């Protein structure tokens, strides 16, 4: 990038403002530093799925068909969220390396180019949603009434995709420079607004299911606008730089394939659950949204790992990166145990928050033991995902996720369908997905091959 195109240099945010800056004698792997990044990230990550849980509860009281429609269309919208996570994670790793090497301006430049990429990608996704919503949800839904309602919801909700992806790009570069305060304010404020709008639009305003979609668009658009405004205040160098954008796309290739594997898994799970009836897919929607909520909350530790591992490797300190990895792995496992205990305590109560339908409650009881058992393992897997993404070891993550999908989940899910095993078979497939990834990421962490130092992300040895 030419000197005229580079962002102006600004001082790193003070520790008192971001709660993430190290003191002169503090280890990068200290519990305080990990918590200073993880706690605000927890609020940011939990805000969106918490809103989705509120949305699910509001829509669930409209009846089983609207709940099933949100299950189907929400799963399709998760494709956009997947692109957002891909963008945020890739940008965090690149920005953190630059920041660790002492070049904040270059770290911010990664955010500028990620935002251009977000705008281009979101235009394509909105167009595809308008054209393809009908055929796609009809392929996933179990009946015509559910499919029609889901398609209408999806066409409205898709207009929130630009804001969603801009927010993802903003979260990425801010995490890279260890700024935790602004993402917290932007995301939390937008989702609180939407959580207020959703019940008002669905019931008093009389918009029904459409009110849910409009509330989604409001939250995502406000959040994306705030992140974009922050970027404009940070730097005057806002021109697109194709070379950097291409580097981001190429580097994100393995994350893209990894993420595609997850989407295949969750889309397949919803499609198979739909074949077991409206009550089954409604219960699956409740359990899946709780899983996403728990997973993203657990991912707060992974966000801290991405930022700290990237920064320490960018500064040339492999030992500090390994210390961070050890601590976040322990923290992830403990967090998973806590979530499992909370889920067990609420087994007889939580499904009733979302729907009064006793048939859905019966199906939820089938899923619950799987949900509880998987949480501790998931906590460790998500923490190690953060370590390896921060280190740029995404090729390994791609390979282990593909293996878990092709050799574990997909065979199990279609066997469940063929043998009519119900939701228990669906979640047994998800358990196999987690088990294979757990074994692979723990082995990779112990090998230390991922700890490659330098300001540029480079591939680790196989």
Automatic annotation (TrEMBL):
<keyword id="KW-0472">Membrane</keyword>
<feature type="transmembrane region" description="Helical">
    <location>
        <begin position="185"/>
        <end position="207"/>
    </location>
</feature>
<keyword id="KW-0813">Transport</keyword>
<dbReference type="GO" id="GO:0015297">
    <property type="term" value="F:antiporter activity"/>
</dbReference>
<feature type="transmembrane region" description="Helical">
    <location>
        <begin position="114"/>
        <end position="133"/>
    </location>
</feature>
<feature type="transmembrane region" description="Helical">
    <location>
        <begin position="290"/>
        <end position="316"/>
    </location>
</feature>
<dbReference type="GO" id="GO:0005886">
    <property type="term" value="C:plasma membrane"/>
</dbReference>
<keyword id="KW-1133">Transmembrane helix</keyword>
<feature type="transmembrane region" description="Helical">
    <location>
        <begin position="366"/>
        <end position="384"/>
    </location>
</feature>
<dbReference type="Pfam" id="PF01554">
    <property type="entry name" value="MatE"/>
</dbReference>
<comment type="similarity">
    <text>Belongs to the multi antimicrobial extrusion (MATE) (TC 2.A.66.1) family.</text>
</comment>
<feature type="transmembrane region" description="Helical">
    <location>
        <begin position="66"/>
        <end position="89"/>
    </location>
</feature>
<keyword id="KW-0812">Transmembrane</keyword>
<dbReference type="GO" id="GO:0042910">
    <property type="term" value="F:xenobiotic transmembrane transporter activity"/>
</dbReference>
<keyword id="KW-1003">Cell membrane</keyword>
<feature type="transmembrane region" description="Helical">
    <location>
        <begin position="328"/>
        <end position="354"/>
    </location>
</feature>
<feature type="compositionally biased region" description="Low complexity">
    <location>
        <begin position="15"/>
        <end position="24"/>
    </location>
</feature>
<dbReference type="InterPro" id="IPR044644">
    <property type="entry name" value="DinF-like"/>
</dbReference>
<feature type="transmembrane region" description="Helical">
    <location>
        <begin position="396"/>
        <end position="417"/>
    </location>
</feature>
<dbReference type="InterPro" id="IPR002528">
    <property type="entry name" value="MATE_fam"/>
</dbReference>
<feature type="transmembrane region" description="Helical">
    <location>
        <begin position="34"/>
        <end position="54"/>
    </location>
</feature>
<feature type="region of interest" description="Disordered">
    <location>
        <begin position="1"/>
        <end position="27"/>
    </location>
</feature>
<dbReference type="InterPro" id="IPR048279">
    <property type="entry name" value="MdtK-like"/>
</dbReference>
<feature type="transmembrane region" description="Helical">
    <location>
        <begin position="213"/>
        <end position="234"/>
    </location>
</feature>
<protein>
    <submittedName>
        <fullName>Putative efflux protein, MATE family</fullName>
    </submittedName>
</protein>
<feature type="transmembrane region" description="Helical">
    <location>
        <begin position="255"/>
        <end position="278"/>
    </location>
</feature>
<feature type="transmembrane region" description="Helical">
    <location>
        <begin position="423"/>
        <end position="440"/>
    </location>
</feature>
<feature type="transmembrane region" description="Helical">
    <location>
        <begin position="153"/>
        <end position="173"/>
    </location>
</feature>
């Amino acid at each position: 990038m030419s000197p005229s195109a580079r962002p102006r240099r600004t001082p790193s945010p003070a520790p008192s403002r971001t709660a993430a800056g190290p003191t002169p004698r503090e280890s990068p792997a200290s519990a305080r530093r990990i918590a200073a990044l993880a706690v605000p990230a927890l609020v940011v990550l939990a805000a969106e799925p918490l809103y989705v849980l509120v949305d699910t509860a509001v829509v669930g009281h409209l009846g089983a068909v609207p709940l099933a429609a949100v299950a189907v269309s929400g799963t399709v919208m998760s494709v956009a969220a997947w692109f957002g996570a891909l963008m945020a994670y890739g940008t965090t790793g690149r920005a953190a390396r630059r920041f660790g090497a002492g070049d904040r301006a270059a770290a911010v430049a990664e955010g500028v180019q990620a935002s251009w990429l977000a705008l281009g990608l979101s235009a394509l996704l909105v167009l595809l949603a308008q054209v393809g919503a009908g055929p796609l949800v009809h392929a996933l839904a179990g009946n015509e009434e559910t499919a029609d309602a889901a398609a209408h919801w999806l066409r409205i909700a898709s207009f929130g995709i630009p804001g969603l992806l801009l927010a993802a790009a903003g979260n990425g570069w801010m995490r890279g420079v260890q700024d935790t305060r602004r993402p917290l304010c932007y995301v939390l404020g937008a989702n609180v607004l939407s959580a207020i709008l959703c019940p008002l639009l669905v019931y008093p305003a009389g918009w029904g299911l459409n009110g849910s979609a409009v509330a989604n668009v409001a939250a995502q658009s406000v959040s994306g606008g705030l992140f974009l405004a922050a970027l404009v205040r940070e730097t005057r160098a806002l021109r697109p730089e194709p070379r950097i954008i291409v580097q981001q796309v190429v580097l994100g290739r393995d994350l893209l394939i990894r993420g595609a594997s997850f989407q295949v898994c969750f889309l397949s799970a919803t499609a198979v659950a739909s074949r077991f009836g409206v009550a089954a897919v409604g219960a699956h929607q409740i359990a899946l949204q709780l899983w996403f909520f728990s997973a993203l909350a657990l991912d707060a530790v992974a966000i801290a790992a991405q930022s700290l591992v990237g920064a320490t490797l960018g500064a040339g300190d492999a030992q500090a990166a390994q210390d961070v990895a050890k601590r976040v792995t322990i923290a992830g496992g403990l967090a998973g145990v806590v979530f499992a205990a909370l889920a067990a305590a609420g087994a007889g109560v939580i499904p009733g928050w979302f729907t009064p339908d006793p048939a859905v409650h019966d199906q939820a009881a089938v899923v619950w033991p799987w949900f509880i058992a998987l949480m501790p393992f998931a906590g460790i897997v998500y923490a190690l995902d953060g370590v390896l993404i921060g280190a740029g070891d995404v090729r390994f993550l791609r390979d282990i996720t593909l293996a878990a999908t092709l050799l574990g989940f997909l065979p199990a899910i279609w066997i469940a369908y063929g043998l009519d095993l119900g939701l228990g078979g669906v979640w047994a497939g998800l358990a196999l997905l987690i088990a294979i990834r757990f074994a692979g990421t723990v082995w990779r962490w112990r090998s230390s091959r991922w700890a490659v130092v330098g300001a540029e992300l480079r591939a680790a040895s196989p």
